[in-house]
Amino acid sequence: MLSSDTANPLAGLDEAALPTLVDRLVEQGWFVGERFIDPALCRALHDELRTLADHRALQAAGVGRGEAHRLRRDIRGDAIHWLNRDSQPQRDYLAAMAGLQGQINRALYLGLFEFEAHFAHYPPGSFYRTHLDSFQGRANRVISTVLYLTPDWPADGGGEMAIYAEEDDTRELARVRPEAGTFVCFLSDRVPHAVLPTRYPRASIAGWFRRNASLGGLIDPAR
Ligand code: OGA
Ligand code: MN
């Protein structure tokens, strides 16, 4: 299965969607793909996140990186666990993202050189207010990714990711249901987005392709 398929760097993701992914990134700055990641891998990752939650291995997420890191429940309410290659599902997902990184680099010459990601659990009632994932001029987070892990997301579940216009972050362009297998990626410093209040436990992996941004002297600290 996935873990033994080391020959194909794109194992586990929907190869046929890659040309569309690249086109959407170029034309509008974001891409949404349903059933983008293999269902068995999504299930395994979801099981792992639930085990982490059962073992109290999630930490409250904060806002700001490095020394500026603060807990702000009024801005975001998720609990996270950074991927660290501890399990086969994590290694499979990171391998798929490494394959995607290679494809994006070949198509767009973005010079992406690493990927960092965390599991995220949003309990009922939680949300993440409108934000950008990186700031222009310090853009070592270049492309953001989110993979959703909750199967059969209920119609009244809320918890959509809202995508807003670059020039007006109150103008909503799209709403993404956080259904297992759906994958979103977007330009980290251009696309304002939010997690609308969820009514059900919401499971995902948020990740970022990074570039070494030390040239300008302004470096986002890792995490
Ligand atoms: C994030 C984020 C969106 C989502 O973690 O920075 O914006 O849909 N997540 O989970
Ligand atoms: Mn974000």
Layout of secondary structure:
Blueprint: H1 18-28, E1 30-33, H2 39-54, E2 59-60, E3 79-82, H3 88-108, E4 114-122, E5 128-131, E6 141-148, E7 161-165, E8 168-176, E9 183-187, E10 193-195, E11 202-210
Antiparallel strand pairs: 1-9, 2-3, 3-4, 4-11, 5-10, 6-9, 6-11, 7-8, 7-10
Helix pairs in contact: 2-3
Bound molecules: N-oxalylglycine (OGA) and manganese (II) ion.
Observed structural traits:
Jelly Rolls; four-stranded antiparallel β-sheet; 11 strands; binds N-oxalylglycine
What global shape is seen? globular
From N to C, what is the helix and strand string? HEHEEHEEEEEEEE
Average pLDDT, all residues:
91
Provide the β-strand percentage band. Answer: 25-35%
Structural class: alpha+beta
CATH level-1 class: Mainly Beta
